[in-house]
Amino acid sequence: xxxxxxxxxxxxxxxxxxxxxxxxxxxxxxxxxxxxxxxxxxxxxxxxxxxxxxxxxxxxxxxxxxxxxxxxxxxxxxxxxxxxxxxxxxxxxxxxxxxxxxxxxxxxxxxxxxxxxxxxxxxxxxxxxxxxxxxxxxxxxxxxxxxxxxxxxxxxxxxxxxxxxxxxxxxxxxxxxxxxxxxxxxxxxxxxxxxxxxxxxxxxxxxxxxxxxxxxxxxxxxxxxxxxxxxxxxxxxxxxxxxxxxxxxxxxxxxxxxxxxxxxxxxxxxxxxxxxxxxxxxxxxxxxxxxxxxxxxxxxxxxxxxxxxxxxxxxxxxxxxxxxxxxxxxxxxxxxxxxxxxxxxxxxxxxxxxxxxxxxxxxxxxxxxxxxxxxxxxx
Length: 379
Ligand SMILES: Cc1ncc(COP(=O)(O)O)c(C=O)c1O
Hints:
This protein has about 375 residues and is α/β, with parallel strands linked by helices. It has 14 helices and twelve strands. The mean pLDDT is about 95.
């Protein structure tokens, strides 16, 4: 089946009891046993729930995996994955990385004896040199946050495999419509479903997908043991978002391309980051590895932080808010918001300047979006 059809029909849909087309929300913490040791497939919602399972089966199908877990947040998914590691293990990750992921790797895991080497993942020589005998996990963002770089996933995965490390790809920005990391050789895909998968800014969620039975068994075990799984209603909201994912992300992308082209010619803009622009260093790689460029555009305002702040205070239609991937356009300032947890020197070295603004281009009409940008940039 094609992507759009799978998004609507994967999982047990319609449900068997009454044939409900929309998966019912099984808002229950527990399930009656048929007999001692005999369930109808579910016993307790932390361990499993039919609504969450419909979402998990759908996400597994969309990513070309065989197993998925839906989590309470993207960070819950990431934290659970980290339990695959043990003290003494090392992680390799890219420098321009979501601030929350950076904090987990650099601050939370360190006291537990798990350290991370942050490298330029676009430089494969550096990647080769940085992999040590203790490297057990390579962490990649298929489209990086916030500079929108596209690393060479197949070659990085190969380097990791040759040294016995697993590759995890955070596919949040690309969504399964534009990238399927498992097909590119990755072992695990992680999502903040808060973003495009849900798509309506009304839920926080995460997901992990794999097709490796051993990893599936361990991830499922940790999700239940740690209690990081997603609630039924939130799972249902994400599943409803997935129904329209393909339509939405293509519309986001079309608006993002127009926005990026507009910003590129504007005199108040120093530089634009969008992998769909020929000027982006990852453009050729994005064309080769992705099926689309996504809906996020970043730019550096002239006059640095002051210029960025003036712009963010003047947008009207576009709202000053964190997060991305929802129907409504949002703008944020990575240095003080999404990436504020990264120390300033590390942030600057990764290219995340004070003048940088990240736009999550929504589904408003592009004419209205460009008018809002034009007005705000006058400042
Ligand atoms: C690329 C990326 N990964 C993971 C996360 C964390 O997800 P959540 O906020 O759902 O915990 C985010 C959140 O912004 C993100 O942008």
